[in-house]
């Protein structure tokens, strides 16, 4: 049985080699078609490389401040404040830490607020949203559409006055930016540095948007994290001002009462009661003011601890990193695809002819 199978295997191998030679000979006979396909592919690749706009990437890196609880002298001071029933907001919480912070950069609210940032282009102040529209030549497409023809995105526009058309355009811009232009990630899990990349076909737009988004998110982040400490500080400052006003009034009252009782007959000591009461008020207000001033200073220290929370390490610097599709690369890739597709076409053409 084994001896009979061996010749069969040899015959099938010979048939396979014969078929391969036939196909190679067929493809070589059609070299003109394959060559034309390669030339056409090279031309298409060169055209694509010429028409393809370069992509400019602005990169900004920052480190997030470690949000640990207060320690040392500040921790003791906060503990003392707590014993008096005062919460100075020693920690901003972990609502925007780690991945939450990266998602904050990509949120629609932050992106839309950033798009309203004013920038100067060709000597004219416009918003980043208007700059994006001009870069993509949307105005030309809207020239015959009355719904969008007169649509404007002025710098620092109030969001609540936007129409449905404004919202739809901003939504499209946000989708385009979040999907292909904006990237925020921690490059290495071992390093607590987050990088933000903004890519577009316009170098200035990438640069301005990257800077503006970092500023917008940083402002929102700081205000949110330090909101509790700021509120406590404002309350304490208001109380300090009130008690100081009361103390000044009490001091003035003591002086007035003493003037009224100057050279008073010792038998009429009851007339000295208003002066004594005013002095008690002065002492009480002095003690309260002293404690409130301490707490107010502690609140200021706490607020300074909360701010800043984002430390910028590297900012984008012009000229930005440029990525372009080279002409030589386009010719090589186009030529290869032309050869490949031409060969596939000839193979299918012959197979169809054989089957028929």
From TrEMBL:
Cell location: Cell membrane
Pfam families in UniProt: Wzz
Residue ranges occupied by any Polysaccharide chain length determinant N-terminal domain in the UniProt entry: 25-114
Keywords linked to the UniProt accession: Cell membrane, Membrane, Transmembrane, Transmembrane helix
TM regions (residue ranges): 23-51, 330-348
Principal place of residence: membrane
Membrane topology: Multi-pass membrane protein
One of the record's GO cellular component terms: plasma membrane
UniProt name for this protein: Chain length determinant protein
Taxonomic source organism: Flavobacterium resistens
Lineage of source species: Bacteria, Pseudomonadati, Bacteroidota, Flavobacteriia, Flavobacteriales
């Amino acid at each position: 049985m084994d001896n009979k199978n061996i010749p069969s295997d040899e015959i099938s191998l010979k048939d396979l080699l014969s078929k391969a030679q036939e196909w190679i000979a067929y493809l070589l006979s059609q070299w003109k078609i394959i060559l034309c396909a390669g030339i056409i592919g090279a031309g298409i690749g060169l055209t694509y490389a010429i028409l393809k706009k370069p992509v400019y990437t602005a990169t900004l890196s920052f480190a997030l401040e470690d949000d640990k609880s207060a320690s040392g002298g500040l921790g003791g001071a906060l503990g003392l404040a707590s014993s008096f029933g005062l919460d100075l907001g020693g920690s901003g919480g972990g609502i925007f830490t780690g991945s939450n912070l990266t998602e904050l950069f990509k949120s629609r609210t932050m992106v839309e607020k950033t798009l309203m940032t004013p920038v100067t282009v060709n000597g004219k102040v416009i918003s980043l949203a208007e700059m994006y529209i001009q870069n993509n030549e949307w105005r030309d497409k809207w020239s015959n559409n009355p719904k969008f023809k007169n649509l404007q995105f002025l710098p620092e526009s109030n969001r609540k006055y936007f129409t449905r058309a404004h919202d739809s355009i901003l939504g499209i811009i946000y989708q385009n930016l979040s999907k292909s232009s904006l990237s925020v990630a921690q490059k290495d899990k071992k390093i607590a540095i987050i990088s933000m990349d903004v890519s577009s076909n316009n170098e200035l737009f990438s640069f301005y948007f990257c800077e503006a988004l970092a500023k917008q998110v940083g402002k929102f982040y700081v205000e949110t994290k330090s909101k509790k400490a700021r509120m406590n500080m404002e309350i304490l400052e208001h109380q300090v001002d009130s008690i100081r006003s009361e103390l000044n009034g009490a001091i003035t009252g003591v002086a007035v009462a003493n003037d009224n009782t100057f050279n008073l007959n010792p038998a009429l000591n009851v007339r000295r009661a208003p002066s004594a009461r005013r002095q008690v008020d002065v002492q009480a207000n002095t003690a309260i003011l002293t404690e409130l001033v301490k707490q107010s200073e502690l609140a200021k220290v706490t607020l300074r601890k909360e701010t800043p929370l984002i430390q910028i390490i590297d900012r984008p610097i012009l000229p930005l990193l440029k990525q372009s599709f080279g002409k030589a690369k386009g010719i090589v890739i186009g030529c290869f695809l032309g050869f490949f597709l031409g060969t596939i076409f000839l193979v299918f053409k012959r197979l169809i002819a054989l089957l028929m």
